[in-house]
Amino acid sequence: MANAKSAQACGCPVAAFQKMISGKYKLRIVWDLQDGPKRYSEIRTGLLRGSSGSAVIAPRVLSRELKALTEQGLIDRKDFGVVPPKVEYRLTRKGKSFVPVIAAIRNWGARHLAEANADQMVAAE
């Protein structure tokens, strides 16, 4: 997080933004939480459902991503203090304001990936 602050301090919001969202699952976690609070296992299942390639997400990696998103103020972690443990994650106001940005990235990707696939098909003919 210190790197994101130093990038922001040097006047480069793009570098600060890039540092904030760096990580394999952060964008997908925020996107998945737009529909409401989820527990750890629900987030993990959602990530596995959308994954291409490895069907294994190391618990340590997912926990690290969730902790970073919490520290960045994009998500909130609510511990119910019961046994067995019950913890939910939800978007903060800042996290909700980030959803349209991810939607724009998703739309751009859908549009341009479709073009790239069409170009590859033409080249293969």
Automatic annotation (TrEMBL):
Entry annotated with the keyword Protein transport: no
Domain HTH hxlR-type: residue ranges: 12-117
Pfam families reported in the protein's UniProt record: HxlR
Record carries keyword Signal: no
Keywords recorded for this protein, A-Z: DNA-binding, Transcription, Transcription regulation
SUPFAM superfamilies from the UniProt entry: Winged helix' DNA-binding domain
Alphabetized GO MF terms: DNA binding
Protein name per its UniProtKB record: Transcriptional regulator, HxlR family
